[in-house]
Amino acid sequence: MNKAEIEFWFEFASPYSYVAAERIEREATLGGIAVNWRSFLLGPIFSAQGWKDSPFNLYPAKGRYMWRDMERLCDKLALPFRRPSVFPRSGLLAARISCLESAQPWCPDFVRAVFRANFAEDRDVAAPEVISELLASLGLDAAILVARANSAESKEQLRRQTERAVQLGTFGAPAFFAGNEMFWGQDRLQDALLCSLGLIARP
Amino acid sequence: MNKAEIEFWFEFASPYSYVAAERIEREATLGGIAVNWRSFLLGPIFSAQGWKDSPFNLYPAKGRYMWRDMERLCDKLALPFRRPSVFPRSGLLAARISCLESAQPWCPDFVRAVFRANFAEDRDVAAPEVISELLASLGLDAAILVARANSAESKEQLRRQTERAVQLGTFGAPAFFAGNEMFWGQDRLQDALLCSLGLIARP
């Protein structure tokens, strides 16, 4: 039998993607499930359905709820949280890096570091200097990685990965795939993990 | 100490409200928590944010996901499910009845019967004859109840209850309230129950 695996699709601007990024490795490891980290951009997906901003800004009742829910959820899960003073912040550079370097063993640590900087420390993760600092703090060569991420090939790779997200039926983040089954929202992580183990019925 | 309680806000056209209606009484009873059933209409709330139809119809990727998710979820929870051939179906009459009669001991049974007729039996719950049949099957006087539900007072009561939902910050269904804390989505039922018991931090 092949090792169970799950695809974790995340967007750096997405608050619930932060929660999922903090949860997934530990919970997947308990089930012996490998995690494939997949960064993508929600911007083009939202634009295509006529949204020029985050739905949490476009629909204020939804946004108010989400921020309160994030406070409660992070409190329950013992995750640090501070509401960012700017929302959403572009995760473009971070997404390019984590798309291009997704096979590197340090990549999950980098992803979590970016999420924490944004959602726990209110740092401007849209700024290349901040991303460089986070890379350096992981002992990596920030100059080389940022230059690689800004190459035409890297831009194309993230564009293709975002297109793949659309083709797979993604409409929000986080999304988990167990085979062809999509689960949307950090609330559904456990269901996605059960599905990857064959413990939730497939069609 | 007062008995713990939870408010359950539901819309008859909402698939996930069906799941919540099937789950809530048993799970609340395990915690000794009283459930207050609150029907309301999402139509006016969606209209106010520019939606003329269900978001599951307006955003096809979201809709495709939801129907597959409902299949999986009902399978997991051993709930009967058949995708309705018409979606959404108006729950106006059923909502008026369950708003006006919310204090009656048969009301939760009626609510579940309507949800099952729509989401497990593909029956046209927008039709007064179907609602009358469901009432009669519970041993109730359908003619009297439907007449009462169509009175001006009853219409006004559901209108006011929907306005209250808006004032409380509701933007979708199902929604649960533990005191002032709102939880949105059937996925969050357990969190709402924990909150009603004081086991999730309040501000």
Secondary-structure map with pairings?
Two copies of one chain form a homodimer.
Chain A: E1 5-10, H1 15-30, E2 34-39, H2 43-48, H3 55-58, H4 60-76, H5 92-100, H6 107-119, H7 128-137, H8 142-149, H9 152-167, E3 175-178, E4 181-184, H10 189-196
Parallel strand pairs in A: 1-2
Antiparallel strand pairs in A: 1-3, 3-4
Describe this entry's structure for a reader.
Two copies of one chain form a homodimer. Chain A is α+β, with helices and mostly antiparallel strands. Chain A has a single domain (5-196), classed as Glutaredoxin (3-Layer(aba) Sandwich). Helices cover 53% and strands 10% of the residues of chain A. Chain A has ten helices and four strands; from the N terminus they run E-H-E-H-H-H-H-H-H-H-H-E-E-H. Chain A has helices spanning 15-30, 43-48, 55-58, 60-76, 92-100, 107-119, 128-137, 142-149, 152-167, 189-196; strands spanning 5-10, 34-39, 175-178, 181-184. In chain A, strands 2-1-3-4 form a four-stranded mixed beta sheet, with helices on both faces. In chain A, strand 1, helix 1 and strand 2 (34-39) form a beta-alpha-beta unit. In chain A, helix 1 runs antiparallel to helix 6. The longest helix of chain A has 17 residues, at 60-76. The first copy, chain A, is globular. The interface between A and B is medium-sized, with 27 and 27 residues.
